[in-house]
User: Which sequence fits this backbone?
């Protein structure tokens, strides 16, 4: 399940691409196979990086001399261990909402992105997220390592633009996932045992693995209305 539309990024052979907060590698793996480039995954969690690496080990690059390479780095997003203007493209998906000092992360993104480079960033959409917080103020809103704020997309866009990046476009993603999270929040204390939560989870797994036409159409219709995430794309001027 990817939030960023990798196929719309201006990736080229030889690029250096950063997946900031790569988690289990859902975007990292897609970036690696998109072009013959060097993909770098950064995450604070070492166990997450191990899962990302296992994804590469389980799906080796069978193309001889593909010149694709990757690196995995355990690091704090607020103190990135890279020189200025290192990356042609940066993906930062569902990360900023977890970080108290996210503005420092935005400064680091600008610093390591090359002039003319592309940034793709996603955060939870404000009103579906607000419902989650209201349904489970003591659970979802206070889950360790969870979300520490609800973003206003327009304000986040302005903050990124003030740092010298030009807005390109936006879209919404995961319209079918918002009801799943509302169900979880409504049943927070018993969500692992809830039949409704389990049934909806099976539906989402079926959708992701099979991608039938009917759910693809439902996703396209529901995402602009109640997409769980908002995705924005920028280019660094210069």
Assistant:
């Amino acid at each position: 399940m990817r939030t960023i539309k990798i196929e719309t990024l201006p990736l080229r052979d030889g690029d250096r691409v950063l997946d900031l907060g790569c988690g289990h590698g859902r975007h990292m793996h897609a970036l690696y196979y998109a072009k013959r480039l060097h993909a770098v995954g950064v995450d604070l969690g070492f166990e997450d990086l191990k899962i990302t690496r296992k994804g590469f080990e389980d799906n080796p690059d069978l193309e001889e001399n593909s010149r694709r390479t990757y690196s995995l780095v355990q690091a704090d997003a607020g103190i990135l261990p890279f020189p200025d203007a290192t990356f042609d493209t940066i993906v930062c998906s569902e990360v900023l909402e977890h970080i108290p000092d996210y503005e420092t992360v935005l400064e680091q993104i600008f610093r390591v992105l090359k002039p003319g480079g592309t940034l793709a960033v996603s955060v939870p959409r404000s009103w579906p997220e607000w419902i989650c917080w209201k349904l489970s103020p003591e659970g979802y809103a206070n889950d360790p390592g969870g979300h520490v704020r609800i973003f206003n997309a327009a304000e986040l866009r302005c903050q990124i633009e003030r740092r010298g990046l030009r807005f390109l476009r936006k879209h919404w993603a995961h319209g079918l996932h918002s009801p799943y999270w509302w169900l979880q929040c409504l049943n927070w204390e018993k969500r692992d045992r809830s039949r409704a939560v389990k049934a909806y989870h099976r539906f989402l797994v079926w959708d992701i693995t099979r991608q039938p036409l009917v759910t693809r159409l439902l996703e396209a219709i529901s995402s602009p209305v109640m997409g769980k995430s908002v995705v924005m794309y920028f280019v660094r001027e210069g």
Q: What stands out?
A: The first helix runs from residue 26 to 34. The chain has a mean pLDDT of 97. Helices lie at 26-34, 46-58, 102-112, 126-135, 153-161, 178-186, 195-210, 213-226.
